[in-house]
Amino acid sequence: QKQRIAIARALLRKPKVLFLDEATSALDAESEAMIQETLDKISRAGIDGEPLTSVAIAHRLGTIRNSDMIHVMKDGNIVEKGTHAELTKLAGGIYQALAASQAMRTGETPADGAAKKQEEVLSPRAAERAAQSAATLNAGESEATKASFRRLLRFNKPEWPLYLPGVITALIHGATTPFQGYLMVAVLDSFYAVDREVMKDDVTQTTIYYVICGVLILLSTAVQISCFGTLSEALTARVRIALITTIFRQEVGFHDDPDNTPALLGSALQLWAYRVKNFNHALGSLFESTGAIVCGFVIAFAGSWRMTLLMIVALPVL
Fold this sequence. Notes:
mainly alpha, 4 strands, elongated
């Protein structure tokens, strides 16, 4: 946006000489083509009938291919000069090598490419890198997505007090699952009582435990979701701010790299932050599972430690 505004402000001043130093380096290919076409028209027709001389400095040759004169510099010296058509005919020339590496032609010779208006495309190697980057984002195997546990916790430092109630309620929520199984067995066992009054008392007591268990599930779930949800939103916001701040602090050359196109950076900003958001939810599920396992083992060993050990040994086979 800054580059677009800068170009527009420069043209509104109706200059006689316009200097463009990597003027479209941060733009995507489509926007660059549109702006370059406008600049070419203005350079040929002038502004309000006044002639305009444009001097452009560029590494991407698509922005200067329509220039009246192109100077190729190396180590501070002019080594080649001419039009695009003339320079692409120089066998072994620097400009010809650059034109070939940037694939400024679509199946034609460099000289033929000057006769037609064509879109600038990436070289096969650059296109392959861009495709691999897109696939990496979709597959979720990017190295940039791998962050340490401690670093993610540091992003949540202001909300650390929320971890304690979140972890406790997650353990309670998990423990209620095997406890419900214990209550189910207790109800079935009550039906075998010979005395109806004893059966009624046992069923009533188990029903009260079920109600207490339901209230615990309701409260623990509410607190767990609230705590880990708040932690996740705060973590996501800070990660997105850190990502976009880092992107803005990069040099222009970083954005010229085919691996760092606006589309890929936008996808990274959206995808990676979303995956980090699941970090705290996964942490809550982990403690919930831990509570269920611990409570299940306690109930099992309390009921019959021999049968429990036997089931643990037979579990891999089952």
